[in-house]
Amino acid sequence: VWIFGYGSLVWRPGFEFTSRKVGFIRGYSRRFWQGDTFHRGSEKTPGRVVTLLEDCGACTWGVAYEVRGEQIAASLEYLNMREAVLGGYDTKLVKFHPQEKDVEEPILALVYIATPQNPSYLGPASEEDIAAQIIVSSGCAGHNIEYLLRLADFMRYFCPQAEDKHLFSIEEALISILPCLYYTEESLEET
């Protein structure tokens, strides 16, 4: 079984897997439209995490994890709790296209998508409003800022050819609100 992650699963899967591949799925855009009152927020200040929006001409980059044997039941049980019960996500099967050039056929993968029908769905907002909400939100998995910056770093380092204007616009809005939060390695070495 392959499981496609496009949010925190790209850096913190939380389950055992046999192999992983960076790649993309077609027909979806990543959006910070899902509320989170557990992992990256609270009931009082819900965080913003990503979901997928059907979008014919788009593709979303992430990581697919291969799970085999005993890993399958354990990973699906874990993800059902993490993504479905606590997160409000539904599952779908999608065609995953690995970044590697030697793989010709897409791989069928399971993906978790939050839809507007779940109670935590927040929907669209301006990049500035999303960034402002992220700045004040924190949950049991850490601060919502970490979620945004780790996802932006993943895209920058593992998928430099891919564009994700929504993600990078929110990162830019966050940096303009709190410029002291964003340090480059060079600026850290200078201090």
Automatic annotation (TrEMBL):
Its main location: cytoplasm. Its EC number is 4.3.2.7. Signal peptide: none annotated. It catalyses: glutathione = L-cysteinylglycine + 5-oxo-L-proline. Pfam families: ChaC. It is found in: Cytoplasm, Cytosol; Golgi apparatus, trans-Golgi network. It comes from the Eukaryota. InterPro entries: ChaC (IPR006840), GGCT-like (IPR013024), GGCT-like_sf (IPR036568). CDD domains: GGCT_like. Keywords: Apoptosis, Cytoplasm, Golgi apparatus, Lyase, Neurogenesis, Notch signaling pathway, Transferase, Unfolded protein response. Belongs to the gamma-glutamylcyclotransferase family. ChaC subfamily. This is Gamma-glutamylcyclotransferase. It comes from Panurus biarmicus (Bearded tit).
